[in-house]
Amino acid sequence: MDLRHMRHFVAVAEELHFGRAALRLNIAQPPLSQSIQRLELDLGVSLLNRSRRGVEMTDAGRAFLVEARRTLIQAELSRKVARRAAEHKDELRISFVGPALYRFLPQLLATCRETHRHVNTLLYEKSSPEQMPGMLAGEFDIGFVTAATDQIERCESLLVERSAFLAAVPGDSALARHASVSLATLAEQDFISAPRKLAPQGYDVLSMFKSAGVIPRVTQEATQTNTTLSLVSVGLGCGIVAGTAALRQTPNVTFLPITDMPAYMRWELVMVWRPDHLSATAAAFVEVAKSLIAAHPEWLDVAPPINLITAAEARQ
């Protein structure tokens, strides 16, 4: 049994047709049939039932398909890791959610640059659900995801940032003159929210409003925090964002504490990595991150940023 036989079987199992599988693999049909027969002989079981009506998988075939896919994915990952180790020793690929740019990630990159100027850093902004498959497939060395992500598998993690959720409201609206706002009040406004299917578990807006017994009037969907803030700035609605967003000056956007946000709902940013495929460059990056967190314990404080507190006092 070798990887070639596995690839052939997966193609036939997915197409359930030898002719289509042969075209997909760009080989003739007789060698494909022989490859599957050799695989079945090596395993000592029948993987496929062949008849005039077509091809069906046996119970053994369905079980083997799951493991064959995993084996092929792992084999491809091993190839990528080996080639990258040989060709790109000083390259670091980092995936991240947008709010990582408000405080932690730029500070980390600047600190690393002081001692690792030779490292070429590649940055990829992606949602948390989008990052994890890439992390597991070896496409990224380090990821920054929300703490509620339920897909962290075979990864080590480090909590690097924590903050309260804040309401982002148009700066020229009546709400902007208040020092704080409730979820009930926000539910009465046009609201901007990420599609629920893309929201990490525990971070979707409907769960937040449900805790207050209200339903938001979602009039616009946006997947990125910066997109939400841009829409808020032109008066298209209000949004709920990570508290660190207030550290950035966004024209015509006012950030307000939310009076009835449940205490257990808070923004948390986590750095994740695969320990079994961590290069020396990535390992050094992790150590710098740990030192940075130790030097800034306030970054794990859930209190609103100082500039937000000052602005709220000025409006009172």
Automatic annotation (TrEMBL):
Residues 1-58 form the HTH lysR-type domain. Keywords: DNA-binding, Transcription, Transcription regulation. The keyword Transferase does not apply. Pfam families: HTH_1, LysR_substrate. Transmembrane segments: none annotated. The keyword Iron-sulfur does not apply. Belongs to the LysR transcriptional regulatory family. This is Transcriptional regulator. It comes from Sphingomonas psychrolutea.
